[in-house]
């Protein structure tokens, strides 16, 4: 069963992972909240009050740059990870992920260099934190933040604003409600002038998350002691004050090592006439334990809110993953499968457009119901069957020999040339439907959520679909033109048979040349205006009949050749092409926007982390 120890370790791991993912403190990162929900410890105090020294003695290792003046110029986020007894101790920087440092002198050098990298070798400061993790069997699980010291005046080489800048930076850390404040004051200064206490009181008036630490007890004037402070009489805090004796500059220069320093500190308190009675509540080892214990209870108290935050974040991440799409498989077979799945998804959307689940298919009906009939109505038959033209065509067809009964050749020519006009609307129907289909392909690609991530596949699909549509259009045009040709290639017997009767029925005037054979003066009648008008009107009624037929058959042909084909075999050719491709080409088809891939990677990592966190938090919160 998980213990509290492992829970602190877990919090540390979560924070570590958060930092690797760029999810730490403030900023505009939407995922920073978990980091902020987890307790951390920040060290606050005036310059040279001993902040870095305190951190070092908590860690039990020399690794921080220390000294007089402004040494700490960037926040240092220090994560201590307790490892198994006997394991090798090492440190790792976030900015140098692959390097393990086992020499802590090199760690110190790297902190200095990394500070300079951002601030230059000046006395400038930067709020960009340095992240350092220490893995050791000798540390307690803790996250500590070392901050630049608060100052009162800008020194040579610093901008006037530095005093305020440092305060703003420090405040940003300590005002977070989950930040435990390690307020460092040197014992050789009046506590009333402590910058640390001043700031801590502002952001934590009740003192519930402030730990007062008094350094440099050994440097106090002879004959004075800090008992008033340490026993809480000078300034009351909820937690007891802890006195510390760090190494002096002289010790540091002499390379007094940490083990020796800790022993010396223990001896100092044990033998001190002033603090002897407090000796088991003083010193850096005690401080480390105190902090770790407090951290435990802080985490325990926050388990419910941490759990709900983790759950909320998991939900957010999952919906983001949904939005980004699942990661793509690696092997060729799975890739092919993915491509086919994506094609099917597109095809489904496309079909919905045609079948009416989505809008757009109705525009095809519009072509047949409006555009085609309108185009047919607009055909210039009036002009074509004008008296003048009928006369001309019939006469030309007769040649030198006038027709006797009905001008059969004339009829044929008039009808054939009239039917030619239908070619325009027939082809135009195929074109109009083609454009509707093309637009639906475009729309469907855009609407297929799953395809969003794959711009290359989108382009390929669009090209393949449009190519197919082009073929269907050609086929459709051939078919509709054939329909038109069919209407003109054989005039029905029926038509010719009906001609005389119709004329009889319609005419009603016995003198009219409805039946030229019966006419008294066929020659005159035959060429009278009435005669040609009648021819015109007969042709017109035939053309009208054909028009009616084509109005019905053109849509049938277009639907058959274009719409149905699009519905059933739009991607057939594409599928056969895909089948011939190889793994590498699949990858090309599935290459995503790199930014998106990166985003998903982050998302996956976070999800893993948060899910692991949820499991562990769950098991800890049940273990009592
Ligand atoms: P920071 O600026 O607050 O980080 O302070 P540092 O940790 O860099 O310490 C400033 C100087 O004070 C260094 O030279 C330390 O050796 C010295 N110092 C810090 N704490 C103590 C202490 O308890 N006793 C003595 N004698 N010197 C100390
Ligand atoms: Mg420092």
Describe the structure.
There is one protein chain. The chain is an alpha/beta fold and about 625 residues long. It is built from 23 helices and nine strands. Helix 7 (about 225-230) links the parallel strand 8 and strand 9. Guanosine-5'-diphosphate (GDP) binds near residues 45, 47, 218 and 245. It comes from Salix koriyanagi. Forms homodimer and may homooligomerize and heterooligomerize to form the phragmoplastin complex. Binds to PHIP1.
Bin the helical content.
55-70%
Q: Label the overall shape.
A: rod-shaped
Count of discrete alpha- or pi-helical segments spanning 4 or more residues: 23
Separation of the first and last Cα atoms: 10 Å
Sequence stretches where pLDDT stays below 50 over 5 or more residues: 24-31, 504-524
What structural class do helix, strand and pairing data support?
A: alpha/beta
- Give a count of the beta strands, DSSP E runs of length 2 or more: 9
Rg from Cα: 46 Å
Descriptors for this entry?
624 residues, alpha/beta, nine-stranded mixed beta sheet, 9 strands, rod-shaped, binds guanosine-5'-diphosphate, binds magnesium ion
Helix and strand topology:
Blueprint lengths: L3 H17 L12 H5 L2 E6 L5 H9 L16 E7 L7 E4 L2 E6 L2 H16 L10 E7 L5 E5 L15 H13 L4 E8 L8 H9 L6 E6 L11 H4 L11 E2 L5 H5 L4 H14 L12 H41 L7 H24 L6 H16 L3 H4 L2 H12 L9 H13 L2 H25 L7 H35 L3 H15 L14 H5 L2 H41 L2 H9 L2 H7 L4 H29 L2
Parallel strand pairs: 1-6, 1-7, 2-5, 7-8, 8-9
Antiparallel strand pairs: 2-6, 3-4, 3-5
The chain binds guanosine-5'-diphosphate and magnesium ion (MG).
Subcellular location: Cytoplasm, Cytoskeleton, Phragmoplast
GO cellular component, one term: membrane
InterPro entries: Dynamin (IPR022812), Dynamin_GTPase (IPR001401), Dynamin_GTPase_CS (IPR019762), Dynamin_N (IPR045063), Dynamin_stalk (IPR000375), G_DYNAMIN_dom (IPR030381), GED (IPR003130), GED_dom (IPR020850)
């Amino acid at each position: 069963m998980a213990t509290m120890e492992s829970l602190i370790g877990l919090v540390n791991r979560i924070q570590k992972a958060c930092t690797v993912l760029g999810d730490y403190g403030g900023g505009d990162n939407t995922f920073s909240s978990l980091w902020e929900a987890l307790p951390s410890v920040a060290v606050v105090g005036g310059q040279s009050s001993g902040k870095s020294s305190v951190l070092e003695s908590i860690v039990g290792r020399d690794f921080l740059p220390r000294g007089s003046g402004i040494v700490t110029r960037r926040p240092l986020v220090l994560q201590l990870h307790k490892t198994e007894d006997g394991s090798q101790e090492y440190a790792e920087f976030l900015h140098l992920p692959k390097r393990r440092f086992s020499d802590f002198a090199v760690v110190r050098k790297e902190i200095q260099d990394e500070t300079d990298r951002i601030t230059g070798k000046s006395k400038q400061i930067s709020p960009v934190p340095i992240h350092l993790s220490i893995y050791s069997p000798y540390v307690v699980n803790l996250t500590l933040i070392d901050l630049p010291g608060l100052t009162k005046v800008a020194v040579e080489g610093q901008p006037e604003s530095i005093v305020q800048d440092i305060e703003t930076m420090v405040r940003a850390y300590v005002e977070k409600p989950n930040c435990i404040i390690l307020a460092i004051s040197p014992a050789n200064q009046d506590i009333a002038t402590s910058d640390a206490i001043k700031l801590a009181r502002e952001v934590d008036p009740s003192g519930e998350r402030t730990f007062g630490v008094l350094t440099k007890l050994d440097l106090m004037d002879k004959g004075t002691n800090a008992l008033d402070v340490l026993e809480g009489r000078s300034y009351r805090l909820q937690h007891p004050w802890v006195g510390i004796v760090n190494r002096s500059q002289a010790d540091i220069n002499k390379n007094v090592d940490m083990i020796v320093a800790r022993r010396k500190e223990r001896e100092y308190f044990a033998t001190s006439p002033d603090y002897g009675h407090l000796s088991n509540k003083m010193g850096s080892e005690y401080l480390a334990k105190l902090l770790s214990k407090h951290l435990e209870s802080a985490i325990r108290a926050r388990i419910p809110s941490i759990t709900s935050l983790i759950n909320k974040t998991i939900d957010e991440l999952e919906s983001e993953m949904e939005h980004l799409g699942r990661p793509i498989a690696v092997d060729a077979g799975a890739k092919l499968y993915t491509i086919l799945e994506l094609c099917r998804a597109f095809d489904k959307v496309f079909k919905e457009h045609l079948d009416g689940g989505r809008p757009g298919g109705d525009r095809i009906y519009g072509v047949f119901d409006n555009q085609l009939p309108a185009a047919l109505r607009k055909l210039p038959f009036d002009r074509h069957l004008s008296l003048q033209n009928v006369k001309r065509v019939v006469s030309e067809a007769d040649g030198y020999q006038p027709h006797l009964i009905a001008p059969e050749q004339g009829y044929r020519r008039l009808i054939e040339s009239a039917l030619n006009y239908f070619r325009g609307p027939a082809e135009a129907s195929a074109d109009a439907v083609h454009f509707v289909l093309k637009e639906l392909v475009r729309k469907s690609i855009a609407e297929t959520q799953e395809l969003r991530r794959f711009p290359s596949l989108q382009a390929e699909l669009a090209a393949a679909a449009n190519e197919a549509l082009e073929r269907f259009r050609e086929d459709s045009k051939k078919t509709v033109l054939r329909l038109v040709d069919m209407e003109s290639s054989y005039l029905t017997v029926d038509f010719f048979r009906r001609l005389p009767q119709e004329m009889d029925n319609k005419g009603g005037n016995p003198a009219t040349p409805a039946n030229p054979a019966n006419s008294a003066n066929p020659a005159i009648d035959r060429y009278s205006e009435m005669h040609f008008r009648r021819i015109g009107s007969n042709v017109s009624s035939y053309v009208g009949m054909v028009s009616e037929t084509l109005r019905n058959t053109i849509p049938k042909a277009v639907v058959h050749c274009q719409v149905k084909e699009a519905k059933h075999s739009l991607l057939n050719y594409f599928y056969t092409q895909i089948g011939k491709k190889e793994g590498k080409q699949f990858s090309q088809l599935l290459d995503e926007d790199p930014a998106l891939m990166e985003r998903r990677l982050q998302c996956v990592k976070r999800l893993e982390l948060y899910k692991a966190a949820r499991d562990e938090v769950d098991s800890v919160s049940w273990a009592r």
